[in-house]
Amino acid sequence: MGKAASPDLRDRVGSGRPPRTWMVGDNPVADIAGARAAGIPGILVNPGQDGLQPAVRRILDKAPWT
Questions:
Q1: Residue 59 to residue 63: CA distance in whole angstroms
Q2: What is the DSSP string of the chain?
Q3: pLDDT value at position 25?
Q4: Number of domain units in the chain
């Protein structure tokens, strides 16, 4: 289980606050798989390889804002 699947995060997500939650991370196992285990969408970025601006663009493009 990744850090996103920690009981503390699951409790906060399960409480309904905030209404929209995403896990953004650079590790497909600890971040993205953990997010899925917690029932929240994960957005994989690699700012070290791609640079910060492409990582931010990926977050803005992938996050379900509605």
A1: 6
A2: --GGG-HHHHHHHHTT-SSS--EEES-IIIIIIHHHHHT--EEE--HHHH-HHHHHHHHHHHS---
A3: 87
A4: 1
CA dist 11 and 41 (Å) reads 16
- Dihedral pair phi/psi, residue 26, rounded to 5°: -110, 5
**Structural domain boundaries enclosing 53:** 3-62
Cβ-based neighbours of 61, under 8 Å, separated by 6 or more: none
CB atoms within 10 A of CB 63: 13
pLDDT tens for each residue of 43-55: 888 878 878 788 7
pTM value? 0.59
